[in-house]
Amino acid sequence: MSLFNLLGHCAIEDNLMESPALLSPLQRLRQRTASDQVAFFGAEQDACAAAMTLARRWGARHRRGECGVIVASGGRFEGLIESMASHFCRVPFNDLAAMDAAVDARTVAVILQPIQEDSIVTPASLAYVKGVEKLCRTLNILLILSEAHGAIGQQRGVLCEDTYSVSADIVVLGDHSSRSPRSAALLVRGQACTAQIEDLAGFVREPASPRFAGIAAKPQRSASRPLMA
Asked: If we measure between CA atoms, which residue out of 139, 143, 116, 147 comes closest to residue 130?
């Protein structure tokens, strides 16, 4: 399912109190996913960088400026994540014990791509994803789920969160389509809202067209606020 089909799917499946005609696609997505902030980004890499910016700011508030990040192997943007983290650790996929052992006082976020797609589609086990969520909640660490590789809708439910019955602090959504460049969206909740999402680099405004034409427009940057902590 492409990111754009996902937006349409949200409008169809939801029984909204307001008329769907009064809600934009992003508003529907925010309501459907119980997110505090939702926005489009010009490229998947931009959305991933925005997620890391939010994690860095969270670390500045709660980990004395540390930004340790643990990534389950197989993510598309490990190089970008490593460049933005103060401490980076890669652990084997589907190995909860390795994830648990990697967490330390510097850790601010765990980034997990539940559906691996390097050569074949490999979904994480239910016990693994639920275990990672419990670990993050117990230790007060941000859980970031990445669907930037186009895993949207490949398992049961609209998002991987539906499939595994978990709730992340940040979700990176990619566009599994033939568009170029591939656009993306970011869902942010609760304590992960450490900045206004529209002030982050790569943010693009929601198109007015119902066909979502020109989604990969030139990113809008704010001149009044810094883009990174």
From this structure: 143
How many Cα neighbours within 13 Å face the side chain of 156?
5
Helices (H) and strands (E) in the chain, counts: 7, 10
Rounded to whole angstroms, the Cα distance separating 95 from 58 reads 26
Is-contact 122 116, C-beta < 8 A?
yes
Instruction: Give first-to-last CA distance, the chain, whole Å.
Output: 34
pLDDT in tens, the chain (229 residues): 455 555 555 554 544 444 455 778 888 888 888 999 999 998 889 999 999 999 999 999 999 999 999 998 766 788 999 999 999 999 999 999 999 999 999 999 999 988 876 666 788 999 999 999 999 999 999 999 988 665 544 445 568 888 899 999 999 988 765 555 567 899 999 999 999 999 999 999 887 654 444 444 444 444 444 444 4
What is d(CA 187, CA 144) in angstroms, rounded to the nearest whole number?
10
Tally of CB atoms within 10 A around 226 = 9
Calpha distance 163→23 (Å, rounded): 26
Which segments of the chain are extended strands (E)? 37-41, 68-72, 87-91, 107-112, 115-116, 122-123, 142-147, 170-174, 184-188, 203-204
